[in-house]
């Protein structure tokens, strides 16, 4: 997969002309681990290949320069050069490797699709489980965020609650103060009413005593002769009043 990405990127850059080739060389010269260039995304599935292992992009790169048979001629020339220069010597291990390669290729072509389908199924199950875990975590985190916001809202309302409680305590203290003031006022009023009632009683008793004393002295000062004269005078006044009333009635 990495070889296809490299070949594809090189093909795209080379198609841009000499400037693109120069940029490729500069990129190779000045590439560092701390480079901020974006990393190309790896494909999830492999691209087209020829003969099982050779990427199609290699042929596409060589076609403009060598033609259709260029890649095959290049491969045959490299193989002939390696064998003629005895860089690689054919021995019994070569035949063993060829047999093993044949068995491996047969196994891959025969059982590869089934194994790939089974691996894809396992991968999908793992991805689904990971997605479920992710969704569950997202749900729990969203609920935690909502709970946190609610707690923050409650914390903001707690200040209002404290203010209301302080107001209630102040009202209770004021009510107690006014009740005590009212109680003191009533006690003072009762005592003042008692003093007024006591003075009124003293004054009334003095008046009664004075009236009784005057009445007693007046009664004791009247003689029997004065009493008879007073009674006669009262009778005469009553008779005169009777005549006057009778005259008014007849008139």
UniProtKB/TrEMBL annotation:
Keyword line: Acetylation, CF(0), Hydrogen ion transport, Ion transport, Membrane, Mitochondrion, Mitochondrion inner membrane, Transit peptide, Transport
Gene Ontology, cellular component aspect: mitochondrial inner membrane; proton-transporting ATP synthase complex
Database matches in InterPro entries: ATP_synth_Bsub_B/MI25, ATP_synth_F0_suB
Location in or out of the cell: Mitochondrion; Mitochondrion inner membrane
A Pfam family reported for this protein in Swiss-Prot or TrEMBL: Mt_ATP-synt_B
GO molecular function: proton-transporting ATP synthase activity, rotational mechanism
Presence of keyword Transit peptide: yes
Superkingdom field: Eukaryota
Keyword Aminoacyl-tRNA synthetase annotated: no
Binding partners and assembly: Component of the ATP synthase complex composed at least of ATP5F1A/subunit alpha, ATP5F1B/subunit beta, ATP5MC1/subunit c (homooctomer), MT-ATP6/subunit a, MT-ATP8/subunit 8, ATP5ME/subunit e, ATP5MF/subunit f, ATP5MG/subunit g, ATP5MK/subunit k, ATP5MJ/subunit j, ATP5F1C/subunit gamma, ATP5F1D/subunit delta, ATP5F1E/subunit epsilon, ATP5PF/subunit F6, ATP5PB/subunit b, ATP5PD/subunit d, ATP5PO/subunit OSCP. F-type ATPases have 2 components, CF(1) - the catalytic core - and CF(0) - the membrane proton channel. CF(1) and CF(0) have multiple subunits.
Family to which this protein belongs: Belongs to the eukaryotic ATPase B chain family.
Described function: Subunit b, of the mitochondrial membrane ATP synthase complex (F(1)F(0) ATP synthase or Complex V) that produces ATP from ADP in the presence of a proton gradient across the membrane which is generated by electron transport complexes of the respiratory chain. ATP synthase complex consist of a soluble F(1) head domain - the catalytic core - and a membrane F(1) domain - the membrane proton channel. These two domains are linked by a central stalk rotating inside the F(1) region and a stationary peripheral stalk.
Protein name: ATP synthase subunit b
């Amino acid at each position: 997969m990495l070889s296809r990405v490299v070949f594809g990127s090189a093909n795209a850059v080379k198609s841009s002309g000499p400037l693109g080739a120069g940029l490729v060389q500069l990129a190779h010269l000045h590439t560092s681990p701390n480079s901020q260039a974006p990393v190309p995304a790896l494909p999830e599935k492999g691209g087209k290949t020829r003969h099982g292992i050779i990427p199609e992009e290699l042929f596409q790169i060589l076609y403009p320069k060598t033609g259709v048979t260029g890649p095959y001629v290049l491969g045959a020339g490299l193989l002939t050069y390696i064998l003629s220069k005895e860089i690689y010597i054919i021995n019994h291990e070569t035949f063993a490797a060829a047999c093993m390669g044949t068995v491996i290729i047969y196994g891959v072509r025969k059982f590869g699709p089934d194994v790939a389908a089974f691996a894809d199924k396992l991968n999908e199950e793992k991805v689904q489980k990971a997605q479920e875990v992710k969704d569950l975590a997202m749900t729990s985190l969203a609920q935690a965020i909502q709970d946190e916001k609610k707690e923050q809202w409650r914390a903001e309302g707690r200040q209002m609650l404290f203010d209301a409680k302080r107001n209630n305590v102040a009202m209770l203290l004021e009510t107690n103060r006014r009740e005590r003031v009212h109680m003191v006022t009533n006690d003072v009023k009762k005592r003042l009413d008692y003093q007024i009632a006591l003075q009124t009683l003293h004054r009334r008793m003095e008046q009664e005593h004075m009236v009784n004393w005057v009445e007693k002295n007046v009664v004791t000062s009247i003689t029997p002769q004065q009493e008879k004269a007073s009674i006669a005078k009262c009778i005469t006044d009553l008779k005169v009043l009777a005549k006057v009333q009778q005259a008014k009635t007849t008139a």
